[in-house]
Amino acid sequence: MKTTLITGISGFLGGHLATIAKDQFRVAGLFHTYTAEIPGVRTFYSSLKDFTVLQKNLDEIQADVIIHNAAMANPDTCEANPAEAEKINVGSSEFLAKWCETNDRRMVFISTDMVFDGTKGNYREKDEVNPLSIYAKTKAKAEIDILTHCRNSLICRIALMYGKGVFDRLYGSEWLERELIKRKNNVISDPVVLFHDQFRSMISVSKAAEAVTEAAGRDIRGILHIAGSERVSRFDFGRKLCAVLKIPETFIVSAKYDDANIRTPRPKDVSLNITKARSLLTTQFQNIETGLREIYP
Length: 297
Hints:
Blueprint: E1 3-7, H1 12-21, E2 26-31, E3 42-45, H2 51-61, E4 65-68, H3 75-80, H4 82-102, E5 106-112, H5 134-149, E6 153-158, E7 161-162, H6 175-184, E8 192-195, E9 199-200, E10 203-204, H7 205-216, E11 222-226, E12 232-233, H8 234-245, E13 252-255, H9 275-280, H10 288-295
Helix pairs in contact: 1-7, 4-5, 8-10
């Protein structure tokens, strides 16, 4: 059984990756801010800014496959700290890619749909990237570095994820559910503002983890888009979430992205084409309703 190392194992996607991958691999994980305890999984403290520590982790674990999931992922934080974002998101990726190439190992990199500028949507793997934010620019640069330095590598561009985290803490990706429940409980009266003209191919975090784990175990190289089966606006996703939570739609309100004062630029339509993933993987990519019903039966 091969050993798979997951960076950012205590994160939203990382916890699901570990939970699923441990049935197929010996799993080890790196954490930084939050510890992670998963039965049957070894975890180690690390820092993507300290390559000495990272090297010690690699020497000890001797992974056959590295799923590089950890990142400075908040776009606003990256925008305010571009040098740190560059070191963490690009520097660590290049470091791990070179280690994998030198040691004849495989690397799977978790990237984002935000590498595109959102002017057309339905993006395929071969479409030209044009990132708008510092976060997206570091991810796009890391993609190039990994493909350049590691022949046995795969870039998984993952759409915006929804669902519940594995660990008992607050996740940014669960914010909409929390906000709706506050309004249901009369904690807040103003409705949640959601854009009707910003589109993603949203995917449940557990399904994303399933697809990445499957892809990691196959000889798939290059770039692969992992996303849900439909293009959906932020507002329409909110309506679907209200339906499964049995919360009135009056708790959300539609707005236009161009009218909002957004500090960090975000693309308007980064829906992804998943024809390639469907042809290579057995993972079933769901629509929003199916994914939400699995989470909130």
